[in-house]
Amino acid sequence: MKVLLAEDEEDIRRLAVMGLKRGSDWQILEAADGEECLQLAHQEHPDLVLLDAMMPKLDGFQVCQRLKTTAATRDIPVIFLTASVQEWETQRGLALGAIGYLYKPFDPMQLRQQVLDLLAQAGRVPSSSG
């Protein structure tokens, strides 16, 4: 499975990559801001976008909206990875088409399974469980 991780904080990105790769053959693409995320999504056609809500250039909500309104990327599942637990932000992301939320701080050893659980709840089967 190819996962695009968009997170502006390098330490969090490293932890997330470690957790996502643990025990799997997943390919992890990394973006440090919203614009880079959109470019990689169009170039690489990932199986999943794991998206920080607050990033430079374009925030996660703007990225999600653009992904979901573009034919080439609208079917890519989006999961927000955020420190905010504000209900209105969660509702906004879901309304834009995200399939779920994971919250920071997260346990990197559980991250991969949490992603798989959200994909399963949304009826999305990864192309390779790894």
Structure at a glance:
With 130 residues, the chain is α/β, with parallel strands linked by helices.
Number of distinct helices: 5
- Based on DSSP secondary structure assignment, what is the total number of beta strands? 5
Q: In CATH terms, what is the fold-level topology? A: Rossmann fold
What sequence of helices (H) and strands (E) makes up the elements? EHEHEHEHEH
Give me the oligomer status: single chain
CATH homologous superfamily heading? Response regulator
Query: In percent, how helical is the residue content?
Result: 40-55%
Gyration radius (Cα, Å) is 13 Å
| Number of separate structural domains | 1
| Gross morphology | globular
Question: Largest sheet, if any?
Answer: 5 strands, parallel
Contiguous low-pLDDT stretches (5 residues minimum) are none
CATH class: Alpha Beta
Counting helices, strands and paired strands, the structural category is alpha/beta
Proportion of strand residues: 15-25%
Reported CATH architecture: 3-Layer(aba) Sandwich
N-to-C CA distance: 7 Å
Mean pLDDT: 92
